[in-house]
Amino acid sequence: MNPSKIDIDRNISKLRVNSSEFLNLDTNTLINLLEQTIDNIKTISLYWATISSEKKGILSKSKEGEEWIGGPFATIYAIQYFIEYLKKPNSLDLTNFDDSKKRYKVFPTKNIEKLLFPFIEGEVRFPKNMSFDQISQYRGFSNRFSNNKPKLTLILGAGNVSSIPVLDALFHMIAHKSSIYLKLNPVNDYLLPVFTQVFDPFISRGYMIISKGDLKASEYLTEHEGFQQMHLTGSNFTYENIVYGRTLTEKERKLKSLTKTNKKPITSELGNVTPIIIHPGNWSYSEIKHQAKKIVTAKLNNSGFNCIAAQVIVFPKGWKHTNKLKSQIKYYLNKIGDTTSYYPGANNNLNELLENNNYEQINNISCSSPFLVTDLDLDKEYGNKEVWSTALYFKEIQYSSYENFCSNAIEYVNNELWGNLGVTVLFKNYKNKTNHSILEKYIEDLEYGTVAINEWAALGFVIPSLPWGGYPGNKDNDIQSGQGYVHNSLLFESPQKGILYSKFRLSRLIDPPWFVTNKKAHRIFKNLTYYQATNSKINLIKLMFSTLI
Could you read off the pLDDT of 236-251 as tens digits, one per residue? Predict the structure, then answer.
């Protein structure tokens, strides 16, 4: 049932009355409430993952693993990292900082993480003019001030990944000491009873409200004077309608500035035409197959309804493996076979694309969701907007050397593709000394909020200490992937980008559990969630067995 204006006013008044109490909550009490929240997630996580799978019409048991890692696990993991910050807010370690590259290592921080996420490393890069002392000083947001005023933040939840709304809410609660009104997206508002139980420690004290709401409710909420801040995870068109009252024209987006109709501060994460750059090199046949599976995972995870879903694969033109890799991508798309396009309007869009003879349907025509592939040059508009479905685009870039390809690929994705949330570079032997300058050029010059080397950039979403959001500098009237960061559990106030590193191939024997080709994903991520919640040796043993048997 959608809330009436009276209901909304009453809820906002309740938040306002209790906002001073939340602002002045002592740290130990806040930690206790967060620990109670983890206990509640542990209790309801099976139902959470199960109802998400059912409502999305998930067709295979293994695919349920996506709902475990993208729901209860990601939420527990983030809360634990926030608790660590609250216990030790001044715990930056100078030995983790490289002043020459202005980078701070944030992952892994525990031995168990090296086991659970083997060969995965994460760091945060900062502007060149910042010293370690400045990075450490300007950290914490409201936590480093004693004269804060009570604050109410409206969170407009995403409809695709179930942890997004709660992670957005948690960041604003911890970083800005703000009471929260979380309005769920109609696509996944079936999670209202789940989130109500999870956040009962905060809701029962009047620090948080969670509700459903249609378009009219959203419009009333975004214009309400009771909020001091808003955060949106969604589309750039939704953002423009909130801030400007209409969808902007291309001419308006090119203006230096544009008068807003809604001047309330708003942060946002708005998606991306996500590129995967294929750096040329000498790949074996088994490596080609592995990278193809990685790319197909980046496309088909959550049926393609991710802000960071692979959309444009950037190939070196004339590279000896280009056609082989394309062939293997198509092979694994066909092998996966089908998925459910649960997002409203997605099937209609796919059917419209099918009518365009430039697209090749890879899976069987009887499948409910066509898996489509084409060259981006044949449908260039999808370099400038998210396709938000199971369509994938190939783009070939001319080059004369490895260094030249790096420069040309960076120039292309930075300037020709819409958005700057995240990018992946598949780069064999990136640690070799001969490749050092190329690697640094990718990391330094790619203007994206997350730059992932040899792993899908979405993994940066799961690691709580990495900032998640668009590259800094997006204009209000040309918002691209948004402004501001969430997650960011160390509460850095001026991160430039998060960097993720992985081995070119984690294992010759098994696919990583997040690959769509791993048939054990549901057991692995279920056991991982329970282990993360309990730190139980029994659950760790179950987790180890589930990866092997």
Answer: 999 999 999 999 999 9
